[in-house]
Design goal:
205 residues, alpha/beta, Rossmann fold, two-stranded antiparallel ribbon
Length: 205
């Protein structure tokens, strides 16, 4: 939503009403109510399945665009994710790149205790993917992984990005309770102070 606001699809102030009753911006994107959204999503696995279809359409139409899909490690417990992986591998969709946010937590608790999706790298390789495992907080590693994915031929790509949920906000880091909860005013002030400090350090590098 922040990226869409920066691109001018709607005013920045709409972000302040995120998930309020009747607000434009809700937890699940709505293509009918939110400018810039081309597909409503919410059901886990739906986005990656659609991405596979978009990638195949590009191949069939002779287009050279690439399709990217971001999904969570908890989301990979859904069967639709693996149907999409089988589909992408079978059709050798080298214009498709998945980015899996591998933070070890989902809404109900640690992924290892809920559905045990690991080892994700071995599973994606079994479906015919080129797989990279990276530090999801390392911007250089992220850029290098995307550049590598563009060179892969004859198979889809999966970038497994190891991350820490809530990274950069001390009281949120690796805490499952912050999966979908909003901070109060004081917590917000603390979070913004810590994030602005980190941003200043990054800009100084």
């Amino acid at each position: 939503y922040a990226a869409l606001a920066l691109k001018g699809y709607f005013p920045w102030d709409e972000l302040k009403k995120l998930r309020h009753i009747g607000a434009m911006l809700q937890g699940h994107p709505d293509m009918k109510g939110t400018p810039g959204i081309d597909m409503s999503t919410g059901s886990l696995g739906q986005g990656v399945a659609a991405a596979g279809g978009m990638a195949l359409a590009g191949k069939m139409d002779g287009k050279n665009y690439r399709v990217y899909s971001v999904l969570g490690d908890g989301e990979t417990e859904e069967g639709e994710v693996w149907e999409a992986a089988m589909f992408a591998g079978h059709h050798k969709l080298d214009n498709l790149c998945l980015i899996i946010d591998d933070n070890g937590l989902q809404i109900d608790g640690p992924t290892a205790e809920i559905g045990g999706p690991e080892p994700l790298d071995q599973k994606y390789r079994a479906f015919g993917f080129d797989v990279q495992k990276i530090d999801g907080h390392d911007f250089d590693a992220i850029e290098a992984a995307f550049n590598h994915a563009k060179t892969v031929k004859g198979k889809p790509s999966a970038i497994i990005a190891r991350t820490v949920k809530g990274r950069g906000v001390s009281y949120m880091e690796n805490q499952v309770g912050w999966h979908g909860k909003a901070p109060n005013d004081e917590q917000y002030r603390v979070a913004m102070r810590e994030l602005k400090k980190t941003l200043s350090e990054l800009e100084a590098e």
